[in-house]
Backbone:
């Protein structure tokens, strides 16, 4: 009696933590793209790599005549190992709106604001980290060494502060 299957995942992106988080979607039936676009989701996602369990579940659902929707939450790469409260809040709000789950994202504001405050403190303490994040905020890219330094320093700072 299942009518729809949803999977949820995350993907690291070259965005700054101050950027709006997007949610991308992959669907197993073309008509679902319009429904997802109405919810403000990004319907064009290009992934190169091995298939995931989400891909498999969408394929199985389609073979059984069930709509399948995979939601992919974008998050700054340097928060991927420590978690991104703003991304979590974005996903919960989407589920509340689109699926009427009434999970309530209000409590996540405190965590998201706290994380952002700590990141601002790190930027004040390290001009190098500030330069890296400013470059991401302006749409620029970082070298592999800069990516590793930013991710490492953010993870260390957030886990100790």
Residues:
């Amino acid at each position: 009696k299942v009518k729809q299957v949803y999977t949820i995942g995350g993907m690291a992106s070259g965005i700054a933590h101050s950027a709006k988080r997007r949610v991308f979607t992959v669907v197993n039936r073309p008509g679902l793209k319009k429904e997802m676009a109405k919810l403000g989701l990004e319907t064009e996602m290009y992934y190169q790599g091995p298939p995931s369990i989400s891909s498999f579940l969408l394929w199985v659902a389609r073979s059984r005549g069930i709509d399948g929707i995979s939601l992919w939450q974008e998050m700054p790469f340097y928060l991927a190992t420590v978690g991104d409260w703003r991304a979590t809040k974005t996903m919960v709000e989407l589920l509340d709106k689109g699926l009427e789950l009434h999970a309530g994202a209000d409590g996540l504001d405190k965590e998201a604001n706290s994380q952002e405050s700590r990141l601002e403190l790190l930027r004040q303490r390290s001009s190098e980290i500030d330069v890296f994040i400013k470059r991401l905020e302006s749409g620029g890219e970082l070298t592999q060494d800069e990516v590793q330094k930013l991710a490492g320093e953010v993870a260390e700072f957030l886990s100790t502060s």
About this structure: DSSP finds six helices and three strands in the chain. The chain has a mean pLDDT of 90.
